Amino acid sequence: MTRLMGGLAAVAVGFLVLPVLALLPMSLSGTRWLALPPRDLSLRWYATFFTDRDWIEATLVSLRVAAGATALATAVGTLAGVGLARGRFPGRDLVRALALSPLVVPVIVLAVSLYYVLGRAGLVGTLTGLVLAHALLGVPYVVLNVEAVMRGFDVRLERAARILGATAWQAFRRVTLPVIRPGVLAGALFAFVASLDEVVVAMFLSGTSAITLPKLMWDSITQDELNPVVTAVASLQVAVAVLAFGGSELLGRRAARLALAAEGLPESGSAVPAPAGGGGSPARLDPAPLRLVRVSKRFGAVPAVDDVSLEVQPGELVTLLGPSGSGKTTLLNLVAGFEPPTAGEVFLGGRPITRESPNRRNIGMVFQDLALFPHLTVFENVAFPLRLRRVPEPTIRGRVGEMLELVRLAGFGARQPRELSGGQQQRVALARALAFRPPLLLMDEPFGALDRALRERMQLELRQLHRRLGVTILFVTHDQEEAMALADRIVVIDRGRLQQIGRPEELYEAPANPFVAGFIGESNLLPCVVIASDGARLRVRTDGGAELDVAPPAAGPIVPGTPRQLAVRPEALRLHAGGPPPPHALPGVVEEVVYLGSVLRYLVRINPAEVLVVRAPRQAGVRPVATGAPVQLEWDPSQLLLL
Amino acid sequence: MSRTGALRGLLPLLPLLLVLLVLLVYPVGRLLVSGLAGGGGLAAFRELATVPLYRDVLLRTVRLSLTVTLACLLLGYPVAYTLATAPRWLGAPLLVLVVVPFWISLLARSFTWLVLLQRNGVMNQLLQAAGLSKEPVPLVYNELGVYVGMIHILLPYMILSCYGVMRGIDPTLLRAAANLGASDWQAFRCVWIPLSLPGVAAGSVLLFVLGLGFFITPALLGGGKVTTVAVLIEANVREALNWPLAAALSCGLLAATVLALAPAFRLLRFDRLVAPR
């Protein structure tokens, strides 16, 4: 199969390459009859090209037209490519199709149309007419190349620039443009080569006064009996095209590398020095309280954030915890100013900021993929927000040094972000977000990509940093362990709605609803009905038929007969194998035993419909209860929660 | 707010919209409107449909384009397959060989074929040396020459279109097919070909459309004997000054382009053709 295809492919590729290979020897032929192999080698056709006035003149016209058309196409196409890659607006596909249509609409139709219209405007036979027409033909190349690099471009880089203090235009000029520059140059190159090669449009628009090189070639072929100078010109064109193609390949590779670096792929397992207490003593920040009042955000009809009110005290570290798609990142984006809320107000330090653009909010932010600028050094990344604030140069140097020392990266200033390990990149992002001493720091799952050990290290460092700087921090995560390890208070959010706010132990011990009970730690959740109440005790029956005694919940009286959920923590149950049954106990059968080191995890079936998870500490010398063994599950009524 | 957001998103597109309006939409619209307005357009369309010479041109253009598309598919598919399955040391230079001709002047390539295929050119010398023919065979200034030139120019489009899709085919699928009992040929026929069809379809549509509008190659390699729609348009504008007929022909070409491409536009990955990766 492969051999057959390979053979056919060789034939096809040979056919493709043949004229290219034939061209050079042909151009070196000394005779006018263009035979192969060339009879007398000579450079006479090249000599003619470089000395004949008509050829020189045409070359100059072509170069000027190509330069003008390329400049115009590049300016227009770059803006358009960025706009198309990013914008979601009605008619986008149509605009894109129109912008690319010069690639597929027959050139003869374009040429005749332009001839008709430009002729009336007196532009046939002028450079202006040719430049305009060639620019139209060049635009698709620029648009496509810019779109291609924009696909690899992380929009968060621009958002990062915005929240660091850049206006939309500054963000485009200082971040987007440098990063996508290789694509822009590649597009310009293609537009230039295409213009140099354009003949159909030139046939109509050259007139008699602006004859381009391809037009002169065409005339030489059709009216001058295969003028061999054409082979010399074509050979030179091949050389230019090969150079251009090679150049664009290099640019493409550079673009790919920058895009890759922008993703900030952190390598795991990097050596991280132990957290140090020393390293300068930067000024404590002036923390501000954050207040959200009945904030909602809808995308179409879908509410991503639904009527959330929240207060974060100055200097507090609050985690925003929820499963993916719960709206926590949207909420963070509302605070940062990347999305306007559909309803509600956001206050920072008592000042309403709901309608302020991100660059004016003065909020620090560490992005999920860090969004370190791949075209800037570590030093320049950290200096970026300071430069935007026109901080004097000596102060910048001092502050950046101080920040790098704070995150223990002193001496790394000259490195490129991609030369750093994952943990080091994290710390650069943190230094950059804190460099302008923001009163509030937002963190969007910054440790998500790190391996477990490194993540725990970074959490510890963040806590220490927070204690030293006293900045207010809102930290988004989907990892409940991380939320508990970091937070003064945790905000649990699900499907856009606030579920519960509280200290970690409050959430664990008194979850407000089944979602929180299941999301924070592990819980057996059993649908049940209250069947009796004597004031001090409630008796409930689960759907599977088990009956248990429960302490009544703090939140008001319970009417017998109402359906509820019983939450039982796995460690609130005690497993007894053999011996007399304790007072509060359910009989069951062990279905599964999982050995987890210091604890054992049992799955115990208490009736045909219900299986409970039980966690028991492993006791040295005591064998775990075997699978299939009958057991008694003892519970303490005060440890069970009725939700 | 969302409305101003959308408007701000449109801002960078304004220069493009201006260029498209002034240099594309208005000129093409103007040509069609002034060429076809009044009774001239109707008469031109009637002429195209009834005059045998014009009917021949239309049919020839479609036939040329279809044949070229088919030939490019037969030649290009194996190349794409080889590119997609070959080891890197072979694939990378092969790709360069495919793409470099793509970027060489259309005029230069047509001209080179002209020289190679002419009466006493290399091809005829080879044919005679091999004893296949005593007389020089007319290889150019006829439809054969046009076929060679057009295939040469369009083949890279087909290769890249198929290759783009094939590169995304998971090689594990072929191993899975083999593991399930498929021979090489069966795996190719039942797994590879169906998965590569989007590239084949997109490439075929693109080639057919591009082929309809070809001008340089038929004009040069056809030696004035192979009149296509594009050649006819040029003659009517520059020599016969018959604007209504040129407008009617342009209208037909445009309609064919839009009708053929509109459904496939999303399938077409132009960036694979002109944007480096």
Can you give a write-up of this model?
The complex is a heterodimer of chains A (643) and B (277). Chain A is built from 20 helices and 20 strands. With 643 residues, chain A is of the alpha+beta class. Chain A folds into 3 domains: 44-261, MetI-like fold (Orthogonal Bundle); 290-505, Rossmann fold, CATH 3.40.50.300; 522-642, OB fold (Dihydrolipoamide Acetyltransferase, E2P), CATH 2.40.50.100. Chain B has helices spanning 2-10, 14-36, 39-50, 52-85, 88-102, 106-117, 122-129, 143-166, 171-179, 184-212, 216-221, 229-238, 243-261, 270-274. The longest helix of chain B is centred in the first third of the chain and has 34 residues, at 52-85. The two termini of chain B are 37 Å apart. Classes of the chains: A alpha+beta (643), B mainly alpha (277). The interface between A and B is large, with 109 and 92 residues.
List keywords for this structure.
heterodimer; A: 643 residues; alpha+beta; MetI-like fold; Rossmann fold; OB fold (Dihydrolipoamide Acetyltransferase, E2P); 3 domains; 6-stranded mixed sheet; 5-stranded antiparallel sheet; 20 helices; 46% helix; elongated; B: 277 residues; mainly alpha; 14 helices; 78% helix
Question: How is this fold's topology laid out?
Answer:
The complex is a heterodimer of chains A (643) and B (277).
Chain A: H1 2-27, H2 44-51, H3 53-86, H4 92-100, H5 107-120, H6 127-152, H7 155-163, H8 168-197, H9 200-205, H10 213-223, H11 229-262, E1 290-299, E2 302-312, E3 317-321, H12 328-336, E4 343-348, E5 351-352, H13 358-361, E6 364-366, H14 378-388, H15 393-406, H16 422-434, E7 440-444, H17 452-469, E8 472-477, H18 480-486, E9 489-494, E10 497-502, H19 504-509, H20 514-519, E11 524-533, E12 538-542, E13 547-550, E14 563-568, E15 573-576, E16 585-595, E17 599-607, E18 610-617, E19 630-635, E20 641-642
Parallel strand pairs in A: 3-8, 3-9, 6-7, 7-8
Antiparallel strand pairs in A: 1-2, 1-4, 4-5, 9-10, 11-12, 11-14, 12-13, 14-20, 15-19, 16-17, 16-19, 17-18
Helix pairs in contact in A: 1-11, 2-11, 3-6, 3-8, 3-10, 6-8, 7-8, 8-11, 14-15, 14-16, 15-16
Chain B: H1 2-10, H2 14-36, H3 39-50, H4 52-85, H5 88-102, H6 106-117, H7 122-129, H8 143-166, H9 171-179, H10 184-212, H11 216-221, H12 229-238, H13 243-261, H14 270-274
